[in-house]
């Protein structure tokens, strides 16, 4: 059976981009078609300036939202990355296979490092090595497929490269994974800056729809979305990015196709109004379920406890094999009482 792994970083509130680009597909398709593991990747949230209490809060919230979005712990495994030591064990081994040049070519590293320096901060070493930890997340579970939005495809390709290189040098150990992307909304853009991704760690609140935004806030943000100076409604990502983004969002929310939807509208106003309502309707059941789950934190904790146990059991044999393959001595078993005597 195909195995799927994916994750979300608790570095900010979950956005509509996360939902349309990843979460919804995990819940509607992946968990039913494959043996699936989904992870709140909290270690990744420590790669930039962070507030420890906020990371804990956001980790809990992300796990609750994944359940609210429809992940079913009866059919998939949901857990928190730091609860399973195998991720960091394997990450170090992969650092011994990855190269410095390879890390510095990662687009997200380049963008985030510039942003950190502009803010006057220093760049954490973990920001550079982050894609190796992400590769470890994937390879530890022998995942065949990694459902992600566009921005993570380069990182999944690195995981592929590291798997192939490790297998070649040290013998077959890892499944070589591949990224899968949604047909529409693989890159939802910021409503105020439609040439930049809608990112949860960004500061531009009015351009970002959060999964837990009230319907009125969603309407306001979508109705105020920056569009282009033209008047006709056409789907052209390069020339009319603001409009294309709205069409992508509407298509993703209604199951349509952005090009055909463009032909249905003759004004920006009606497109914005319908898009706002479509988003409100998509978020409504997720928010309702989230409210219920918040009233039962013990249930969420139980899911994460069981999930970590299952994840550990699944990752350990592969990571142990990788340790042996790369040249580490197996730990010496505890001497039995009779041997001590
Ligand atoms: P993260 O937390 O930034 O995003 C989680 C998922 O949401 C997708 N996504 C988007 N899709 C469409 N439009 C957007 N504007 C948008 N913003 C985010 C992301 O592509 C992702 O699929 N490094 C990863 C987390 C991670 C991971 C992994 C993912 C760590 N280890 C192993 C897969 C497998 C990240 O920061 O995603």
Summarize the structure.
The chain is mainly alpha-helical and 341 residues long. It has helices spanning 16-33, 52-68, 86-95, 100-104, 107-118, 125-139, 153-170, 215-223, 241-254, 258-264, 268-294, 297-326, 337-340, and strands at residues 3-8, 35-40, 76-80, 145-147, 178-180. The protein is globular.
Look at the structure and give the mean pLDDT. Answer: 95
Which bin fits the share of residues in helices?
A: 40-55%
- CATH H-level superfamily of the largest domain: HUPs
* DSSP, total strands: 5
What is the C-alpha radius of gyration, as a whole number of Å? Answer: 22 Å
Low-confidence spans: pLDDT under 50, at least 5 residues? none
Can you tell me about this structure?
The termini are far apart. The strands form two sheets. A three-stranded parallel sheet has the order 1-2-3. The longest helix has 30 residues, at 297-326. 44% of the residues are buried. The protein has two domains: 3-181 and 297-326, HUPs (Rossmann fold); 205-293, Tyrosyl-Transfer RNA Synthetase. It has helices at 16-33, 52-68, 86-95, 100-104, 107-118, 125-139, 153-170, 215-223, 241-254, 258-264, 268-294, 297-326, 337-340; strands at 3-8, 35-40, 76-80, 145-147, 178-180. The protein has 341 residues and is mostly helical. The structure holds tryptophanyl-5'AMP. Residues 5-9, 17-18, 21-22, 41, 44, 134, 137-138, 146, 148-149, 151-152, 155, 185-188, 197-199 line the site of tryptophanyl-5'AMP (TYM).
